[in-house]
Specification:
23 helices; 4-stranded antiparallel sheet; two-stranded parallel ribbon; mainly alpha; 580 residues
Length: 580
């Protein structure tokens, strides 16, 4: 038997009827299946060519936002004034002693800063050390600490003078032997304990360092004294998934080459904007094969359970892949390149685009079970689900196009490309898929596609619709009070995995206010204009401290220089030691 839909002819003239339009598209496709297939094949080949020759993705996160936003303009202005701070990699160097950490950071900075050593790094410098601080670092201490430090040096002068002729382990042991023979080690428990601990570690095969700074201070070093920083200005390649990968590799190779490893008592970690972005993209790349594989397996299982026919499954998959290729090509033509958000259009299209095909194919199977002719079954399918399919497509289109007004450029581009993709998927499902179903001629459906178990659930819901509606309303009312406890987490760091080195290091730095990377930079036209701004900011309870360029000019230089000059005469033997 056969039956042809008649509702389209009965539709009121001049009135938009989605069912009628869907039937017209399907009727055109099933009447000319091979021309439609060839046309889509040519379009798909053209789309594949566009995607292959023009595909580009930028991983620069600044391009995810509208360029005319005020804060982004301020950010651009700041980095134009200080370009070396735009996308730095922060290298955190931890050592067993202050001297070890300082020496390691100095050697690493010198290695990374060698001219022509690497095209991946522009410059490397230390914000907490270097020649300037070697000369003037004492002046940055408070006056009380300067005086206490000079007093310690004066008190330890005999020991330091004895070591100046042979500043090695041999010289230290000779000093201890002489001191023991003269009974002069009383009160030197700190020195003996430190020597004993260092020698014990060496004999046990563990990395050990002797700290002269700890010896002079008489107390264990603070955690901040065991940590040094190196700032690296990398050359970023935004055409790559990990723009700073080359610079990161260069830093790690240099650290290994200098022996800055855990086996030698050092820990070198990377963080900063570039490293955080690279690790995030690396995590995506690492999980992509698994996620893509699971998606394909899930789609294959759904298609098999729903369609049960190799020819129908092939038709749905061919339609979906053709739509995906055309969507990617259309996206490249519209926006030029994908970004780290809009590239998700592929996953969205696979999940939503294949749904159109499944709806049509399942309904086709049901109609094919009732009818002998495939062409008539396809037309009946269009008549049955034309309205619902159009409504679903329109809802998706409105949903994705609602992203367009946002200033978040990455999301806006995702909405534009995916919305156009839904149009492509809708048109392909009503043209290419019906043409393939007619051309491939799937076998007749001998069994009904109904699922008795689920049908019983439908019947129960219809029979107890008041109970179901009442239960739904009750659940909504019970859940409403929890909305008042809803909190919004605005910290983007919580979106990243704490297991990655860059994130773990970043969070480690935030635990100390003097190392915290959470800072705000404000540009002022002059130091006179900067002073009141800094004062107002420092008064806020949310601000730990406010610094200006004057912060880097040591205060009380007169009294400090006087104290240093007074101590110079007493420390003349250390300043100008006799030849060994």
């Amino acid at each position: 038997m056969s039956a042809e839909p008649t509702n389209a002819a009965q539709a009121a003239p001049g009135r938009f009827d989605p069912t009628r339009w869907a039937e017209h598209l399907v009727a055109f496709a099933v009447g000319r299946p091979w021309p439609v297939i060839v046309l889509f094949a040519l379009l798909t080949v053209a789309g594949a060519y566009v995607a292959a020759t023009r595909f580009a993705i930028t991983t620069e996160t600044d391009q995810l936002l509208q360029a005319d936003s005020d804060w982004l303009k301020n950010k651009r202005t700041f980095y134009e004034a200080f370009p070396q701070l735009a996308k730095v990699i922060l290298v955190v160097v931890d050592g067993q002693t202050p001297e070890a950490a300082d020496g390691a950071a100095a050697r690493l900075t010198a290695e990374l800063g060698k001219p022509g050593a690497s095209t991946a790094i522009r410059a490397a410098w230390r914000p907490d050390g270097g020649p300037f601080f070697d000369r003037s670092g004492l002046l940055f201490l408070p006056l009380e600490q300067v005086e206490a430090t000079l007093k310690q040096l004066t008190e330890q002068q005999p020991t330091l003078l004895a070591l100046s002729g042979d500043p090695s382990l041999r010289g230290l042991m000779r000093l201890l032997r002489l001191g023991a023979g003269q009974g002069a080690l009383e009160g030197q428990t700190a020195l003996l304990d430190q020597v004993d601990g260092t020698v014990a570690k060496v004999l046990a095969g563990e990395p050990a360092r002797f700290s002269w700074q700890q010896l002079l201070s008489g107390k264990p070093p603070e955690p901040s004294e065991l940590r040094r920083f190196v700032l690296v200005d990398p050359v970023l390649d935004y055409e790559a998934l990990q723009p700073g990968a080359a610079a990161t590799t260069r830093i790690r190779d240099a650290a290994r080459g200098l022996g800055l490893t855990a086996a030698n008592g050092f820990e070198v970690r990377l963080t900063g904007a570039a490293s955080l972005a690279d690790e995030e993209f690396a995590t995506i790349e690492e999980g992509a094969p698994l996620h893509l594989g699971l998606t394909i397996v899930a789609i294959a299982m759904i298609l098999f359970l729903a369609l049960r026919s190799g020819k129908i499954i092939a038709a749905v998959l061919a339609t979906t892949m053709a739509g995906l290729i055309l969507t990617v090509a259309a996206g490249l033509l519209m926006v030029g390149r994908f970004n780290v958000i809009s590239v998700a259009v592929a996953a969205l299209f696979l999940g939503l685009g294949v749904d159109f095909g499944i709806q049509i194919a399942v309904r086709y199977r049901d109609e094919r079970h009732k009818l002998d002719q495939a062409r008539a079954a396809v037309l009946r399918t269009a008549h049955a689900i034309g309205w619902s399919l159009t409504l679903a497509a329109a809802a998706l289109l409105v949903g994705f196009f609602s992203f367009l007004p946002t200033s978040f450029k990455g999301v806006a581009e995702l909405g534009l490309i995916t919305g156009v993709g839904m149009i492509i998927a809708f048109v392909a499902s009503l043209t290419l898929l019906p043409a393939l179903l007619v051309a491939l001629k799937p076998p007749p459906e001998t069994r009904s596609v109904e699922t008795p178990g689920l049908a019983a659930v439908d019947h129960w819901i219809l029979a107890h619709r008041k109970l179901v509606a009442g239960a739904a309303i009750l659940l909504v009312l019970l859940g409403t009070p929890f909305l008042f406890r809803l909190e919004f987490d605005a910290n983007p760091m919580h979106l990243r995995s704490e297991k990655t080195e860059a994130v773990a290091t970043f969070l480690d730095l935030t635990r100390r206010s003097d190392f915290s990377p959470y800072t705000i930079s404000v540009l002022a036209p002059s130091i006179e204009a900067a002073r009141p701004i800094a004062a107002r900011l420092a008064a806020l309870p949310e601000v730990t401290r406010a610094a200006t360029v004057e912060t880097y000019v040591p205060p009380d230089q007169g009294p400090k220089l006087a104290a240093i000059a007074a101590a110079r005469g007493q420390l003349q033997g250390l300043i100008e030691p006799q030849p060994a």
